[in-house]
Specification:
The structure is a homotetramer. Chain A has seven helices and 18 strands. The first copy, chain A, has about 350 residues and is α+β, with helices and mostly antiparallel strands. In chain A, the strands form six sheets. A five-stranded antiparallel β-sheet of chain A has the order 1-2-3-7-4, with helices on one face. The interface between B and D is large, with 45 and 45 residues. β11 of chain C pairs antiparallel with β11 of chain D.
Chain lengths: ~350, ~350, ~350, ~350
């Protein structure tokens, strides 16, 4: 299969480029008779929308999700749900230089090598704008999961090297960076302001938690729940690392420390991050993603043109300083898509 | 699709349980007229075989790979290649206790919750023995890649908290732990010996490098090369984290540091780990995997039985102290399978 | 995978309902740098459009294909091509009765049983209108095949029991029924006129020929070229039978008659219809499809309502008398999609 | 995906060649806790085995199915079920001539063109022997369907041009040709005897009926139940045509004749063959397959060698005169695989 679809039974195909007509998703396999209205998308799309946090660019897309198919009288029909988000606030002029120069840290060079040409306006298919379609699809996935009591929380645990020291889940939505530590949040905001002036950018780490997941989701061997979660998260452009539960920290634990004892009331600890042998164990699923700094910076960089000659690149305009926090709803959306898919897969074989 | 297959065009399906008749793989999509003999599997299977390193159990499977189909007069035919490895050194008696008790850190509990019953002898389908089939499949993948100059190296960068301080690639095969730092290797061996006596186990980190990969492999959006690599590696039982290039370290870099400048002679650095926007850029692909400590330990642990009542579990026998170094050829095999698959995918659309 | 996608490497996903916003297709896997403009769709869409032949309803959709994504500066980019056709000439009022009654011969009853509710306006997802998206996708497939010299011809060989007696390929486009026999064409037109007055409908048989197909396309065992062609054609709503080469006639031949001798200049005959053991042999591929009579008729019919009580149904309005000839470009489109897919699949493994 | 797998959730991958080590199937996605023993395969394998009917070759394979994986204590575990059937009665010498000559009507020429070389012994991968693996997989599918009351009957409706005139379902198993008309059965036996002496072969038509199928199985658009059934049946080597319900006969009916009226007690007729708009309607599913005459005949034929020079081919030995009746359990097996798959697919989305 080509690479623009994800999932086995709950299958999401995204399409569109940053500066084209629009971006969207076709969701095939959604069960019927689920209520779905345009308003259901408002909150998630707003969370991903730029211009809300100190690390964002001021570009403001309205990002209204239009439901083109698959819903009748307000209920899903079981046929493909097509979601379309028009591109409105598009100015391709600053990108004209990319018809000759490759941006370091971006896909310009690799798309050119792969395809021989590519849509360079606004990042084309490789733009973070593509993730708006994922967020929209995640809303539909959530419609399957929420009634089951499966809930998702995600927050910033590190930004520009500043790590949270405590987790106050109630503070997350008060922090413009979705950071659960008020002090760290302040520090991060200050750092962003400083780095913005320098014309540079920042990376960070996001943690997501999935509570209420029943035991039994995930498949043996290749489609382990953690494998599909890792792929889902790593398929987001800025993500360069993924870990489950203790993750890289598990490498430093002894077996006696890392094993979670089992008691009549459940697991005594959750080093495993809610997944054993690729299958959910009923505990909270914990996953962290390493987010690289935004590659588009205002500082001058060395690069080459399409003929291979050296060149200097200096991007004009204003850009996001960090993919955090806008990437957080994207990560959550991908987790939801994975869970909805594995839930349907498990339904197909459940036998009691 | 169910979860025991991997890959789109070079598609590997594994089967078998630890204490059943045998384990194996069916490889569908391998191009024709590639030389393939039983001897081609010797080196890779020997590398994965237990009993060679200080961290291994002494169980000795001969692990001869039998080619059941897909090869005629020594050449692949383009039809499914079936590889079978018989289980010989099998003693299921120590596992009889698992008909009632769940081992902490293992899939016993989750398989039981998912399927209602499971093969508990030797770990059944969830046993690391399944990975022998992956290693065999990796040998076939390598037959496609090696003539293209794509080569794989993998080694231990950390074990039980001991991190390498230097990388001497020539030392890797001299170290029983495939550790490129002679001093660290010695320290690790000492630690293993100590932990073995304690009845405990150790985790670590493995790094793999893929050199000679041409630019252009990987698909946009969901089947990014790094996403498929992450899934491939995370689908190995003991792996709880994956990172590409700078990985989690990228979270602490500025964009100006993390971006790899492009010069007429190639990239000036390789923070990206050889992949940009999900597509290989021609540089060495670098991937690291966090390996958790082996969950089977000789120390007594708290658990429950199938009726939910508390119980103590104390495994008899001798077990691996660490999945490292035996996991290294498994990781390499999975990387090979991903690369072979993406190479064939790219061939289908290449146009010049 | 859910059921709205087709193909492995050239993968078409269709979406949309008859009376919704529009219908469309996402094509993932199309090679890059193929010229594609809105005008490329004019001829094929016009051929499928109603109101051109004596057997059609007078509904007139303009059926302009809008390219939403995947094309940059007039060339495909290798990323998903999204095609959208708006629904304009929509009057759902005559369908309101279908909120309670099931039409015989239609999917109303089965969609209701499968999903618990369904979009009954204009046939919803089960409407023949969905095939407009297939025709559009077929245009893209043809862009891959035409430069290779692979060409498609299709025509009516039977309608309402009237069978052609000769084949004049030059006459096909002169016949409003795409019938290659002028006399039979006239007879068919007369029959349609008579049946229209009776309020009834007609079926028929279509033959398609694919010339210029190189040998080697098709996969062993399940994805035989003829199996994928059969699925492709049988997936069109009105088709109830498919045959390749001699087809059902082969059942009455001896082996010595049905076998095609091989000569230095090619096959001496083509009973096989261009496919041997599931793989193209270089001869013209010949496939026939049995098309059932349109189930929507103006005659009164017995049915039940959603509560299971008997009812009479009499559809008002004007309807197509036969799916022929409008189904012909749909069949051709599906054949093109299969061929493009198998061509790309073969490219991935070709080795010389 | 490569071509040796079939099904989405109940996924069958077959492997093996006629004269290799053996042939087999891996079934991934079978639900757990289904009783499965080697004896379960006896009847189906015996039905497919050669040497039982007048149209067969006397080669006698014992065709014992060995369960290599996926079953524990007599119950399926939900992990891949691997079935292996050894090749025993193998004599490759008569096939040595095929290292240079292509047999008319066989895949020799097309495999050579596709792959550049192929296993020509006993037909290699293209041999009808591959279907033994399908029959074995069908037994597992039946284990899912039988408890639901879904049952399969298949029989010969035509052989060598002799068509049945009545259907006595009780006679099927009394006829060595699985023909439900005693008189026709006798005629067919006489014809086979005559054609055997001539060194020629015969084709025919098989009808299969699936009773007890609940409404709602099948997916809209591409994975219509009839499309997947058509592919399944057309993927069997000797089949060149498939029809559902009235099939090609529907082309000659008026809509008022072909539509099945709906009554409070079900459908008043079954022209549709149990499927409407691609979804089962609860009536008996009826499907017919056109079977070409066996291409291997003892009569001398014209062909070419690998260098393209003309040659005469005269096969020695004894061969089947017709694929009927041995193909009947193969057709039934494929139908079972399709139904099991669509049943699991429907379970994933069922909502009441």
């Amino acid at each position: 299969m080509p690479g623009n679809s994800f999932g086995t039974l709950f299958r999401v195909t995204t399409f569109g480029e940053s500066h084209g007509y629009g971006i969207g998703a076709v969701i095939d396999g959604c069960p019927p008779r689920i209520s779905l209205q345009p308003e259901d998308f408002y909150a998630a799309m707003a969370a991903r929308r730029p211009g809300k946090s100190p690390s964002d660019t001021p570009r403001r897309e309205k990002d209204t999700v239009k439901i083109l198919s698959g819903v009748f009288k307000g209920l899903t029909t079981g046929t493909p749900i097509t979601l379309l988000i028009l591109n409105r606030d598009v100015n391709s002029r600053p990108y004209e230089i990319l018809s000759t120069l490759f941006r370091p840290g971006h896909g310009d060079y690799t798309y050119f090598k792969k395809y021989g040409h590519f849509d360079y306006t606004g990042g084309g298919r490789a733009s973070a704008r593509e993730t708006a379609a994922r967020v929209a699809a995640g809303v539909v996935a959530d419609k399957i999961l929420y009634p089951l009591g499966i809930e998702f929380t995600a927050f910033t645990v590190e930004l520009g090297g500043i790590r949270i020291k405590k987790i106050d889940l109630n503070y997350i939505n008060k922090s413009p960076l979705l950071c659960p530590d008020p002090d760290a949040s302040e520090e991060m905001i200050d750092l962003i302001s400083k780095v913005r002036q320098e014309g540079d950018s920042l990376g960070g780490i996001v943690e997501a938690r999935i509570s209420g997941c029943p035991p039994g989701l995930g498949e043996p061997v290749f489609d382990k729940l953690e494998a599909d979660l890792a792929k889902a998260v790593m398929s987001i452009g800025a993500v360069k690392g993924v870990e489950i539960g203790e993750g890289f920290g598990a490498a430093r634990l002894r077996g006696s420390e890392n094993n979670d004892s089992i008691t009549p009331d459940g697991f005594a600890s959750n080093h495993a991050g809610g997944i054993l042998a690729g299958i959910s164990n009923g505990e909270t699923i914990i996953i962290r993603a390493a987010v690289k700094p935004i590659p588009t910076i205002r500082l001058e960089q060395d690069t080459i043109n399409r003929e291979g000659q050296p060149a200097k690149l200096k991007m004009q305009g204003r850009y996001d300083i960090s993919a955090i926090p806008r990437i957080i709803p994207v990560i959550t959306a991908m987790l939801k898509i994975v869970l909805a898919d594995h839930y349907l897969r498990q339904r197909a074989i459940m036998t009691e």
